[in-house]
Amino acid sequence: CTSIIAQDPSGYLYHGRNLDTGVFLGWDKKNHTWKVAEKLKPLTVQLNWKKNGTTLFRSLSFAGYVGVLTAVKEDKFTFSLDKRFALNGGFMGLLEWILFDDHEQSWVSFLTREVLEVASSYKEAQTKLMKTRLMAPVYFILGGAQPGEGCIITRDRDNADLVTLGSEKTGSGSWFLVQTNYDHWKNPPFFDDRRTPAIQCMTENGQINASLSLIYNVLSTKPVLNKETVYTALMEVRSGELQGWTRQCPDP
Amino acid sequence: SGAYPPDKHFEVPVYDVDLDLSPLQRWAPLMADKGPQLVALIDDVKDLIKSVVGETIFKIIMNNLSKVATTLPYPFYEELVGISTFSELPLSTITMYNIFYEAFTL
């Protein structure tokens, strides 16, 4: 996955993401595609979550899945989740859940749903995403409605690392944040470096061009766009608009 | 790339989820449309999990998933039951699909 938050010169925030699957289920030699990515595309849907007749938030999801991976809550915050790999992560959490009855930790995707339903501000969402004990490690990418409100929360089950918009810690520029599937304090592996090209594209275009169209173009640039990409989502917090498209990545 | 604006052909469909409906009912319209495609994916996911964790652990996980579902906080258990009903897939399978992230970060 690749998530990007950008702030234009007037302080307006934009958020976009590519959702990539793993390479599991294998390679379809005939169609040059990863099988699981192709099976998820027809399941991709935009959900308008309604309460009392009004839209509470919008998400991009997969049919049959009740959690939240990508969402916007109008005038409050935007959200995306990128997978974080860990050998001792979620499987141990699942075993603990089965074996012990205390259930003190939260399922990642159910926590995010709860945050979207309940949190009424960027700060409240950030606190909840940072403090809650989780079943599995994850990256939360959160954008707000006010200038400077954007962050990447790197979570393991108990601890959190926070990088905010304006920080140079990720190697991103002062006006944008890029998160893929690797910790910002480490170099991504040579065989899956989407961070460097995404940062290069953003930097070369400059803050003056910060917009949803810029983010879409960056998310459409190989290898940020790749054969594992299922969908691209664009979100605008002020309007609460969310748009999503399934993607096809041409052969190199 | 100069890919923007995106091709309208690839826009994803939009559905409402009415949180004022009971958790058992709120996924019915979506599953009526998308249930068959979900069934097509699930079998492959099961094969994948089996290949990753092995037959024995796979059986332990699947045997426990219905129990796991009952321990999920409200309204998730009820929603999974609703999805299971409308998709005609077993509750254990729907639970596996929904907790896939946690179980397979490796």
* Percent of residues in β-strands of chain A: 25-35%
Shape of chain B: globular
What oligomeric state do these chains adopt? Answer: heterodimer
Please tally the helical runs of chain B, counting DSSP H or I stretches of 4 or more residues.
Answer: 5
What are the segments of chain B in which pLDDT stays under 50 over at least 5 consecutive residues? none
Helix content of chain A: 10-25%
State the total count of DSSP E strands of chain B.
Answer: 1
What are the secondary-structure elements of chain A, in order, as H or E? EEEEHEEEEHHHEEEEHHEE
Q: Specify the overall morphology of chain A.
A: globular
The run of helices and strands of chain B is EHHHHH
Present the secondary structure layout.
The complex is a heterodimer of chains A (about 250) and B (about 110).
Chain A lengths: L1 E6 L5 E8 L6 E2 L4 E2 H6 L3 E8 L2 E9 L7 E4 L3 E7 L6 H10 L8 H11 L3 H10 L6 E7 L5 E6 L4 E5 L11 E4 L15 H11 L6 H8 L9 E8 L4 E6 L6
Antiparallel strand pairs in A: 1-2, 1-12, 2-13, 3-4, 5-6, 6-7, 7-8, 8-9, 9-10, 10-11, 13-14
Helix pairs in contact in A: 5-6
Chain B lengths: L13 E5 L9 H26 L1 H17 L4 H12 L3 H8 L1 H4 L3
